[in-house]
């Protein structure tokens, strides 16, 4: 088991659940794309490594507690700059919380009480705030980050009280200077951290939206290219070329300052697609995707019991539309540390088949992983046709799909378990 002493950063959008219920699906997706385009380059600039992103939430780890807090401060100033350029309905306000401690590192994820404390402290934060624990305060460079006590708090599920600090807003001119009165037209933290990122462009709304759309299209194209690669090389060449041509047209329509990044993403996508075809992917999973179920089943039988075997059994059952069995297999693999099983359950919450969504929601509730909350919230507010039929008449209420209700129950269980 590998452990590491890391700074843990949690962020989320204040009022996200209420906001999504008032917007269309397309508006919600656009908001999240802009949100990601605003925050991701700041994480990278301060040395952060994103671990999870579910809906409106980020979990990011840093080697340096000072860099982690400065990153949170830079995010708030960057969002202030963005929000003043857009209408109130399009503004994005986030909460940031930082904790420090020894965590267990497994398969690209982090676990342990420091993660739970960071999540709880985030719940104390208000929009625009950066809160951090005493563990961070004692470890960070206090000459670089102003601080102010926020009090000692009892946190759900944490046996001891935790002392919390905040970065007070102010018109800082020097890193070591105390809080000053902030001029009206300046960022809340005076650019104390954002000014270090001289090459980070101002967050122009139109460019962010266009870049977000491109990234979303690249993601869809990557999935499509992977699907093509599972069939045959000739098909890959023909359809892959068409996808890349479409992407080039989209890049040409971007603002000039964003075109170079777009072209770089296309090149990376082309290399990734070729590499996947030549070297990538689990060979048994590729066999399943080709629809050769008997061959896949025979290969899975040869494997030793464990998370990989459970995951591949789940993939086989999912492809055969045996969703309840697939969810059970993914549960076993996720409990044994196979993160891919958890991610497949998240994807199943978006499946058009009621039985897939219902089984996934129930299983995510049983797993008790708080990072599933975003997907379950989305499902609880979904507009699938079979869900609407369930509300239409008495027969629908008896026999109709109930995946939304199951998602609500799973969310309640997650909250109860975390108390």
Describe this structure in words.
With 419 residues, this protein is an alpha+beta fold. 56% of the residues lie in helices and 13% in strands. α6 (205-229) packs antiparallel against α7, α7 (233-252) runs antiparallel to α8 (256-278) and α9 (283-289) packs parallel to α11. The radius of gyration is 23 Å and the shape is globular. It starts with a strand and ends with a helix.
Quick take:
The chain is α+β, with helices and mostly antiparallel strands. Helix content is 56%, strand content 13%. Strands 1, 2, 3, 4, 5, 6, 7 and 8 form an 8-stranded mixed beta sheet that branches.
List the helices and strands and how they pair.
Elements: E1 2-13, H1 16-20, H2 25-45, E2 49-54, E3 57-62, H3 65-83, E4 94-106, E5 109-111, H4 113-124, E6 130-133, H5 134-139, E7 148-153, E8 162-166, H6 205-229, H7 233-252, H8 256-278, H9 283-289, H10 293-301, H11 307-319, H12 323-335, H13 339-348, H14 354-367, H15 373-380, H16 385-390, H17 394-399, H18 403-418
């Amino acid at each position: 088991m590998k452990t590491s002493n890391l700074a843990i950063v949690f962020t989320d959008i204040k009022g996200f659940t209420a906001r999504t219920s008032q917007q269309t699906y397309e508006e919600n997706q656009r908001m999240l794309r802009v949100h990601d385009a605003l925050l991701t380059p700041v994480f990278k600039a301060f040395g952060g490594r994103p671990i999870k992103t579910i809906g409106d939430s980020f979990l990011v780890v840093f080697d340096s507690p000072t860099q982690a807090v400065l990153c949170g401060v830079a995010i708030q100033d960057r969002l202030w700059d963005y929000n003043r350029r857009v209408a109130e309905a399009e503004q994005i306000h986030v909460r940031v919380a930082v904790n420090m401690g020894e965590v267990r590192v497994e398969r690209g994820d982090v676990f342990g009480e420091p993660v739970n404390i960071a999540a709880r402290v985030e719940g104390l934060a208000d929009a625009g705030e950066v809160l951090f624990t005493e563990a961070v305060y004692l470890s960070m460079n206090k000459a670089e980050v102003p601080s102010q006590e926020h009090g000692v708090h009892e946190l759900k599920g944490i046996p001891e009280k935790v002392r919390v600090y905040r970065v007070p807003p102010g018109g800082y001119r020097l890193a070591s200077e105390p809080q000053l009165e902030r001029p009206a037209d300046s960022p809340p933290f005076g650019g104390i951290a954002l000014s270090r990122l001289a090459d980070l462009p101002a967050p122009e709304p139109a460019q962010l939206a266009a870049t977000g759309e491109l990234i979303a299209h690249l993601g869809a194209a990557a999935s499509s290219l992977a699907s093509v690669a599972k069939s045959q090389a000739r098909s890959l060449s023909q359809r892959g070329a068409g996808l890349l041509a479409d992407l080039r047209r989209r890049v040409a329509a971007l603002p000039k300052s964003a075109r170079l990044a777009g072209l770089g993403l296309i090149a990376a996508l082309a290399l990734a697609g070729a590499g996947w075809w030549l070297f990538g992917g689990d060979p048994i999973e590729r066999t399943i995707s080709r629809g050769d179920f008997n061959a896949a089943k025979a290969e899975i039988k040869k494997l030793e019991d464990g998370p990989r075997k459970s995951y591949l059994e789940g993939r086989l059952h999912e492809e055969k539309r045996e969703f309840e069995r697939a969810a059970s297999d993914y549960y076993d693999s996720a409990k044994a540390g196979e993160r891919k099983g958890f991610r497949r359950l998240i994807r199943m919450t978006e499946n058009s088949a009621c039985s897939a969504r219902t089984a996934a929601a129930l299983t995510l509730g049983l797993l008790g992983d708080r990072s599933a909350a975003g997907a379950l919230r989305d499902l609880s507010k979904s507009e699938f046709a079979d869900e609407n039929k369930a509300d239409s008449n008495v027969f629908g209420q008896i026999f109709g799909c109930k995946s939304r209700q199951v998602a609500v129950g799973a969310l309640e269980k997650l909250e109860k378990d975390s108390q």
